[in-house]
Structure formats: C-alpha cells, structure tokens
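Note to self: keep these together.
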Amino acid sequence: MQAKALRLINFRNNRYSEIEFTDGVNVLYGENAAGKTNILESIFYFASGKSFRSCKDKELIMFGEEAGAAELCFADERYETRLGVKLYRSRRREFTRNGNAVTKLSEYLGAFRSVIFTPDHLNLAKGQPEGRRRFIDLAICQSYPRYVTYLNEYNRTMAQKNALLRKEGAEGYKADMIGVYNERLAAAGAAICFNRRRFLSQLEETAALLQEEISGGREKLSIRYNGCLEELPESAEETRRAMLSFLNSKAEAEILRGISLFGVHKDDFTLSINGKNARFFASQGQQRSVVLSLKLAEGEMSRRITGEYPVFLFDDILSELDEGRRSIILKKTEGRQVIITGCEKDYFSALRVQNRIRVEKGMCFTEK
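Structure:
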C-alpha cells in the first residue's frame, strides 16, 4: 500500500497544501511546531477515522475557520482510491470515497491502512490502561472495520447509562433501565472482548519473535489480556450471556456510586518479559524494545490479514531511540513506504531517502 498524494485545507496550522509521496522513505523536516506532526495526523485520520492525539474533530480545524478538509489518494495492489473528509465546527463531518458520500464509518475504514509510531507510544509499556486500549482498538479497526460499530454502540450506551446513574432518586426505575442498558452493553462488549483477545493473541506471536531478535535471544515477550471476564467462553453467545450476568451482578454497586464501574471500557493487557511485568520490572531500554516490537508486529499483522504492508508513519521517533533500535526499525521497514518526521535535514543522511519535504509554518516545500 502506498500513499500517493495528500491535500489539506484549513487543517490544523495548514492553510493549503498539496503533497506528493513516493515509495520508500519520505522525510518531512523542519523546526518544532512547524506542522510536521499535523501532516502525519491527517494521513492517519484516513486509516482510523480519528486523530491519534485523542482530540475532537473540531480541534483539527484551523483556528478562526469554520471548516477544514483533507483528501488522500493512495494505491493498493489493485487500484487507486481517493478518500476525503470535510470537518465542521457546527455540524457532523462528511466522508467521501472516490467522490461519493459515505455515511457509515465502517464502510470507510479498512481501505487505507497505516501504522503510526510517536514518542508517546514509548509509554505503552509503563503508561495507563487507556493508552493500551486505544492502541489495540485503533489497530483492530483497520483490519476489521466492523469493530468500530461495536465500539460506537458500546460508548454510546455507556454514556446513556452513566447519565442515568448520575440522576438523583427513582431507584426502582434506575434498576429497570440499567438492565436494558446492560443487555446492549453485553452484546457490544462481548464482540469487543472477543476481537481484542483474538488480535492480541496473534500480535503476541509476531511481537515475541521480534523481541527475541532485538534482545539477541535473551528476552521472551508475552501478552495477557486482563478483561472483566476472567475466562472467555468458546462462543460469542456464551460470552454475551456471561458478560450480561456479570454486569447485572454489579448493578447495585454502580447505583450506589453513581457511575459505571465495570465493563470492557476498564479492560487492559499486561506486557511481560521473561514472565515479569514490563511496567514494573523492565528497564527503560527493555520497555522501548517491547513497544518497538509491538508496533512492528502491528505492521506484520496488517500484511498477514490484508496481504499488503500498511504505510508506516514515524513521528520524530528515531531521535528517541538508540542506534541499535533505530537500525532495527530501518531494517524491518526496508522496501515499504515510510513517512518520517524530524527537525534536522542532515539527520536523515544515512537513509535512502526518495523524497524530502520541508515544512515551515504549515507550508510544505518539496525538494527537487
């Protein structure tokens, strides 16, 4: 898969840009706050339907403007596709695919696939569960677009349930309605739980091999999903029933606290090296190696599922890694499209760069 061209209008600090990419290594360089990360953000938006920065869509629009837009042309082994999005401050966004309106996000996702690696991802091993949930959910959405439907249904129902729990009085009514909400949460939650466990199991297999290679055979990586259900039943229907029973058993405690305390929105996964939790017992170097293994494994998973490698987006990540880990990243992405940012042009002199783009105050200038 290859990103061919990107067009931005009032996106972040970019008033207007048309950028062309080549296969191999594409470098975006310029001073801090010039807008390099914003370009990667716009590209990844077409893979995930959201920003990797955990922000609202209206925050992507240039300050002082009421609307913004982005369009990406990319090619897979079959044909070229053009995806577009228009963002508004006062109404819902609009998606297009080859000029035609798309109403369901699940019909939009999966067409373009990319792996984003930023300095923030280096906190995956030691950071909070929310970051790990976001990592796995974004990865799954690209390979299984229907997954976003389950996430949206779960989050929408959870918001409604929490609104009910916050209301004062009417305890009998609350108990009845919580049962209704739990039915919906169990259905969507069972699908989320099943997909997360399956994906992490497959990811572990590939990431463990990479971790072994990075460590010279000294480190064995394992991943354990920590869900609201200790044991995952064999079938989807059994999972749904088990989750519904679990949620209903916690209703009284949730009414007392006035908030949803249990469910897949609290789930997490543990990364271990040689049987020890990497969050507490791994060195900083080991934690970075684990995250590097996860991100490279994510790319391998995408190729295994779809038949093609995704586009790799690296946001100033090489400066955060030592020479050995930089070499591994470059080796493992050789022959694939990489779009990478950095401050210093000369820093990339060792790379076989096919395309250099200077970014200055939101404007892009391609070197000839």
